[in-house]
Design brief:
The chain contains four helices and no strands. By secondary structure, it is mainly alpha-helical.
């Protein structure tokens, strides 16, 4: 149980810091929107590459906020059937869904890393500002790992609950 608590604390800490990065990305998006609107309306000159920057910042906001969202149970769940199950069956269901989700995010991390490496070796860049794509894909791969940890902890807690411990 100490290991589960330590993993839970580590997952919470990492997801909290990643969420701060997501928040900074969101503030940067807001600042870019305001600067672009002021540039268009007052100066008759938009911020060059604003659409590309907003797209890349959107990746940062979403990827870096996912783990914290899972820690806070902020994802959408359909509990209609699950809430009518007995507690032990509910714990087994939670364990199964958590394990499958962790596997899904592990595959996402692995494939994102491979895709990022391909983008890096082929030197893929955005069309107007020549911003490389690979750091953002590596970011998705990196951010998938804490989600795996959060889901692994959720799985272990559900297994313990199903076992009656």
């Amino acid at each position: 149980m100490k290991l589960i608590n330590a993993l839970d604390k580590a997952a919470g800490t990492v997801s909290h810091w990643l969420n701060w990065i997501a928040g900074a990305g969101l503030l940067a998006m807001l600042g870019l929107f305001v600067a672009d609107i002021i540039g268009i309306k007052l100066l008759k000159h938009p911020v060059p590459g604003a659409i590309e920057f907003v797209g890349f910042l959107g990746v940062v906001v979403i990827a870096f906020a996912l783990a914290n969202t899972e820690v806070r149970h902020g994802n959408i769940q359909v509990d209609f059937f699950v809430e009518h199950m007995p507690p032990r069956l509910r714990a087994i269901s939670t364990a199964l869904v958590s394990l499958l989700s962790a596997v899904l995010f592990a595959i996402l991390a692995w494939q994102s890393f491979l895709f990022g490496r391909t983008l890096q070796t082929t030197n893929e860049v955005s069309m107007t500002q020549n911003i490389p794509f690979y750091p953002f894909v590596y970011g998705i791969a990196f951010c998938s790992l804490p989600i795996c940890l959060v889901l692994l902890v959720k799985f272990l807690k559900a297994v313990m609950k199903a076992a009656g411990k």
